[in-house]
Design the sequence.
DNA sequence: AAAGACACCTGTCCGC
DNA sequence: TGCGGACAGGTGTCTT
């Protein structure tokens, strides 16, 4: 489900309830997520959440003792509820707060994770070698250009590589490449600096706009208040294979790149 | 080192 | 209606 905008929307939704609240209990109903939920997660009980940050698609609930790392995988979602609200199917983890509220993770496919890290959270194995955040000045065309010179992978796969830049998943990779007029099939090393400049701007724009709109709801993503994300209305190509290109009217094509569905206009994207 | 396949798991949708 | 198969927003790991 969630790409960076959906994770950021989740962060913004939960932060006001979590920051400065004390964790009074953690209930793990199913520890078998992408990685087993560690027993040490219970060390967070009694701690006060000092901040709720995001790195890539990881949510970081920081306390004075350590950090709870949450990833939503493909199908995870977070709600803030009164802790008395009845549990539903796939509600795997509750982080109960002294306010009577509770942060509840629901994840049907269980590709998500909940981990506990003591010390500098950015040194966690999963976070240590990530590329720059796309919405910062560290994400530049120059960087893409330099790191791509020897690369033969399709530029779409390159853009989705977390070592290059984080947070660009399948929906927004398709959208940004369409907006930039770059063929997703083109070898990353065959894209000019000038065109990477356009691509970087389009990535920033599509992600920023999606965050503003509350993310993209395809099936089941909801904001933490239960509302859908409205960016789905803005999608140009994702999920629109066979339909006319919004720019030129040609039929949009579909193919697999790196096992992922890829939609593009053969006319507008070169 | 780089590219591609595969794995994890459940729900949904489509064709027969 | 039921069943089999394909597919889905992610990403670490294994194989070439």
Sequence:
């Amino acid at each position: 489900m969630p790409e960076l905008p959906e994770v950021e929307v989740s962060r913004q939704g939960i932060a006001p309830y979590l920051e400065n609240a004390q964790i009074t209990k953690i209930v793990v109903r199913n520890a078998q997520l992408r990685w087993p939920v560690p027993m040490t997660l219970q060390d967070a009980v009694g701690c006060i959440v000092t901040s709720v940050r995001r790195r890539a698609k990881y949510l970081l609930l920081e306390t004075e003792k350590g950090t709870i790392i949450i990833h939503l995988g493909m199908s995870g979602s977070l709600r803030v509820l009164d802790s008395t609200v009845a549990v539903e199917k796939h509600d795997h983890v509750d982080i109960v707060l002294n306010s009577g509220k509770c942060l509840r993770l629901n994840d049907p496919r269980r590709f998500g994770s909940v981990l506990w890290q003591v010390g500098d959270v950015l040194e966690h194995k999963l976070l240590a070698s990530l590329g720059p955040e796309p919405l910062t000045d560290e994400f530049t065309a120059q960087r893409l250009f330099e790191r791509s010179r020897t690369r033969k992978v399709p530029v779409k796969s390159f853009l989705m590589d977390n070592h290059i830049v984080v947070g660009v998943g399948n929906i927004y990779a398709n959208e940004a490449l369409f907006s930039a007029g770059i063929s997703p099939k083109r070898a990353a090393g065959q894209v000019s600096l000038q065109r990477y400049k356009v691509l970087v701007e389009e990535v920033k724009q599509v992600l920023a706009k999606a965050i503003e709109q509350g993310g993209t709801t395809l099936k089941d993503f909801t904001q933490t208040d239960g509302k859908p994300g409205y960016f789905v209305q803005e999608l140009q190509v994702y999920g629109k294979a066979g339909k006319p290109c919004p720019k030129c009217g040609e039929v949009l094509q579909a193919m697999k790149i790196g096992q992922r569905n890829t939609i593009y206009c053969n006319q507008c994207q070169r």
